[in-house]
Write a structure and sequence with these properties.
11 helices, about 20% helix, 4-stranded antiparallel beta sheet, 17 strands, binds zinc ion, 7-stranded mixed beta sheet, about 20% strand, alpha+beta, 3 domains
Amino acid sequence: MLKTTTLLRSFTLVLVSTLSFFSFSAFAQQESEDDIWDEMDCIVDEAVPSPCEETYYSDSADPEHLAGFDPIVFNIFFWGINEDDGLNPPTFTEEHVLMNIAKLNIEFNQYNIFFKLKGWDNTSYRATNRYTGAMINNIWDTALSNGWYDSESLNFYVPYSFAIGSGQALGHGSIVSGTHHWSFQAPERTTILHEIAHNFDIYHTRHNYSNPVTCERVTRDSADPNYNADTNGDCSIDTAAVPEMQVGDVNLETCQYEANEQGCDGDFYIIFESDVRNYMGSRSAGCYDQFSVGQAIRMREYIAEDPNNELDAVTTTLASLYEPYKGEYIEYASQPNTDPPLFQPGFEYYFWDCECKEQTPCNDPAPYDDTSFTYTNTQLLHILKDETNYSSITHPNHSAIAIKHPHEDFWPQPRRCFDNWQTPPIIGGTVTKFNDGIFNTNVTITEKDSLQMNNANLINDLDSGLYNIKKNKVDGSVDETNVLKENN
Ligand SMILES: [Zn+2]
């Protein structure tokens, strides 16, 4: 174990010095699987100066301040990484992608941060030396030179494994991150939330904990001369000073810190359950379920400032959340839909009964901004945030979409009334006469074209007798009727 640690340490230092040549001052941010911790992370972290000084950070931890940020939507695109021969099973499936987009929205929506599934590609990225054992900056370099990225999205990569850790972000404040396939596929893992938070300039709560100059001291009393929570560590005043956790420090059943260690100024740590549960903690997988208010405000302030000028390009509209990620709307009301429009999971949706005016029919869903339709609160479909039957999240005919979210941009106004009553045109058909006047095989079949089949006098013009009439419709459906024409 000691040997491994030493090796990793020397590798890290090389890595840091190599990366310092990059203009975007990238440094790889490593994560660890809970049981295979490595010391890479904090060594790399401590190589960067204190992140607390930018003036656009208020250092606030006030929920009211947080509530003042308007909704913002980020596109995200998921990339699986394959070996060169492409013969390995993809590192994720569509189901995994949907599970992760739901995770992101379920957590971040409370901060009015939304994610739109722009797409995924689990076959194009082929590079054996990126499939296992690479760092995120290597993965990104290869992506850039091969076009395996989406310039309008946060790009999230899923190799089989990284050189180190279960997830990595391309530095604090970036549009690139990833997790290894196992974290991506595991419903209970929260690594993606942690990495995306790094993209929004959030640090580990233990940031600089072992650095005597930049460490965060234990005291929370801002009048105490030792107080430095607003300028040191992770810069969030509502996360405690915490060390890198070791096995046994945290009781993973109760999510309590049970060790008795001293912080950098000699005070014993005062670590709450909320710190153990913080997504940016260490060695506490199974407990992670929250960011602090201060962290969330920091994300929003980083997003608002966008100091690297790269977030604007990867945001999109609220309207995009009301568009399916795949599938097609039917053209005719009676048409069975084999490829229905599907919506990303992670939101609570109400599909309310709606009606469009005759002058502006909604044979296609009404545009997002057109709310001239009428609706009632009769629900044709209700989907919860944690719905995992993904094929059930569709848009029923004669309904509009309401997303249940406290912000007035979402609720209660439903959008995109789809109210299709169109019947498909008849394109032809057959008239079959039963020559014996009973249903048997002695028949005369006459093919008819669309003009003949649409003729209102089709039946009137028939001679007396027993007939079967088949009307073929453009959507492939067939209307079939039997007619007994009496003598006039
Ligand atoms: Zn991290």
